[in-house]
Amino acid sequence: MFLLQTIKRKLYFPFAHYFRFFAKIQLFFWKPRIIVITGSSGKTTLLHLLESQIQDKAEYSHQANSSFGIPFDILGLKRKTLTLEEWPKLFFLAPLKAFQKIHNKKIYVVEADCDRVGEGRFLATLLKPELTVWLSSTRTHCVNFPEPVKENIAVEFGNFLKYTTKKIIINGDSSLIKKITTSFVTLAPRNDGEKSEFVTQKGHPVEYKIQSDSTAFNINGKIYKFNFVLPKETFYQISAVIKILGYLNIPLDDSFSKFQPPPGRSSIFKGIKNTKIVDSSYNADLESMKVMLNVFNLYPAEKKWVVLGDLVEQGSLEKQEHEGLIPVLSKLKLEKIILVGPRLTKYVHPKIESVSFISPAEALEYIKNNLDGNETIFFKGARFLEGIIEHLLEDKTDISKLCRRGGVWQKRREKWGL
Q1: Cα(317)–Cα(249) distance, rounded to whole angstroms?
Q2: Contacting residues for 106 by C-beta, under 8 A, at least 6 apart
Q3: pLDDT the model gives residue 3
Q4: Which residue blocks in 274-406 are alpha helix, DSSP H?
Q5: Full strand arrangement of the beta sheet holding 304-309
């Protein structure tokens, strides 16, 4: 297994360069205005917030944010089975797609991640965005980065600033992002009159209120209300959207009425036995999990349960990152804490009052057997938690609104007894 992983790591960029070459040709003919959304967390939410405003004036890199995913999206290639058998067809189609007219929108909004060393530069030099938005930088995918991990991850994101041609929008409250920006922005070509912009809460009072079925933000006297459970940090995404629209000369719909959060991020569902499910199950790092646990602490409910899955890809920081949850969980008023996965079982369970399971199927059985009714259950983390949620939904049509849909993911959940 170790040998196979080593081979995959060594071949990652050589194979990705093949598709990147043809994606570059497609971009040459397409010539879109490219907006890159990057950072450790909140990228997909920002993309969806922006899409609710721009709508069909742009194309969006949904479910494609990597060195393979983004070239595939540009070339109109889709992975269907996530198996080795589909790769020969993808290799054959790439040069054909490069010269076809695939896209017709003049704006391309791209979510770009940096899972490994070199990925930021690889994608930045392909996209050379007109505008880049960078709002967060934490320890994600730590296993692929050398020490100091947090700084090296930030440097990868910084590459997008270096190759941005006109404008950047960054989190002005992050000292790390500002530090990296200072070192990279001086290298970026700028047109006269274009500047870097900061999204900051300093001097911008933000009032924040969570209700059972909505979240409201009062920013400089303007109310923005969403029918979802969103963290206070969503202020940065809202503010970035306003700045992007101003740059593009597109009017703002301040009701955000067309916004739908991506699956597995803060959706609310009715569960069995009159329970309520808060679904934030699309993975997590320590910082994003802490943010959402604090949100759930404010959520108006009497009987609160949390179901947490492992923090994956943490490498040598695995113990430290998981133990970082202990002081947060200890302060919350919770009826039950249910931990799923070997890491949480090893590092967190012995130090707080909780129940833990290696298998998500075992956790599901425990939940179903111990529900009295009227509980509000919050889900966050890896370990196929969406598979647990499937079996707790009152309305089974809501399954389509969960993350990781499709036959491939269903087969993987079935292997775990879900």
Answers
A1: 44
A2: 32, 33, 57, 58
A3: 56
A4: 286-298, 318-323, 326-331, 342-347, 360-370, 385-390
A5: 267-270, 276-280, 376-380, 304-309, 336-340, 355-357
- Please say if the pLDDT value at position 379 is more than 70: yes
Task: Give the C-alpha separation, 175 to 181, whole Å.
Answer: 10
- Tell which residue, 117, 157, 116, has the closest CA to residue 135: 157
Would you tell me how many other CB atoms lie within 10 Å of the CB of residue 417? 13
Q: What are phi and psi of 159, to 5 degrees?
A: -60, -30
- Report the C-alpha gap between 348 and 109 in whole angstroms: 39
For residues 358 and 362, give the distance between their C-alpha atoms in angstroms, rounded to a whole number.
8
Residues 6+ apart with CB under 8 A from 160: 36, 38, 112, 120, 123, 124, 127, 129, 132, 134
Which tokens in the block code for residue 319?
A: 């113990």
pLDDT, tens digit, 9 for 90 and up, residues 48-79: 999 999 999 999 999 899 999 999 999 999 98
Q: Which of 224, 19, 255, 49 is nearest to 133 (CA)?
A: 49
Q: What's the pLDDT score for residue 383?
A: 82
Among 232, 300, 250, CA closest to 53: 250
Could you tell me which residues come within 8 angstroms of residue 98 by beta carbon, excluding any fewer than 6 positions away? 22, 23, 25, 26, 75
Tokens of 350: 């012995």
Closest CA to 280 of 211, 212, 378, 363: 378
Residues 133, 46 contacting (CB under 8 angstroms): yes
Structure tokens at 95: 């040069």
Enter the tokens of residue 263: 């699956």
The Cα 323–Cα 348 span in angstroms is 6
pLDDT at residue 23 in the model: 98
**Structural domains present in the chain:** 9-248 (3.40.1190.10), 267-415 (3.90.190.20)
